[in-house]
Design a protein that fits this description.
This protein has helices spanning 17-24, 42-45, 106-120, 136-142; strands spanning 5-8, 57-63, 66-74, 92-97, 125-131, 146-150, 154-160. It is of the alpha+beta class. β2 and β3 (66-74) form a beta hairpin.
Amino acid sequence: MIEYTIREIKTEEIPLLKNFLYEAIFQRDENNLAPFDIIQKPELSVYIDDFGKPDDYCLVAEVNGKIVGAVWTRILAGDVKGFGNTDNRTPEFAISLYKEFRNKGIGTKLMLNMLQLLKDKGYIQTSLAVQKDNYAVKMYKSVGFEIVEELTEEYLMICKLN
């Protein structure tokens, strides 16, 4: 069992979201990874650009003083919308952990803590988009997300918070 703490991100740690955004990209071929600068594409950078606005929330998982995972939400309803956008009132999830910390329950705990935070803040629902063959689909379902739309390669999922 790995010891970890979950807490809100500190302002000076926000640049770490670049790493976690890259880690959040589902890459099927471990031998042919996308270049790191893919996160500069507008449809990806929208998840972290100018993070810290109202409706931006981020929790991190820390192990031995090192941040090993992050879950963050923001409302992505501007000119460039998030992949899981449903409307301009629903925060969209992004989550990732460094590979060596996956499948240890940390991601589930991050998700549950963020769902509670959003509920406490008065949000009605939250959303995410996930590739159909991503192993995380099972975890998202286990914390309360339901598939509301099936796209060509992705599911749009919503979790009701009330």
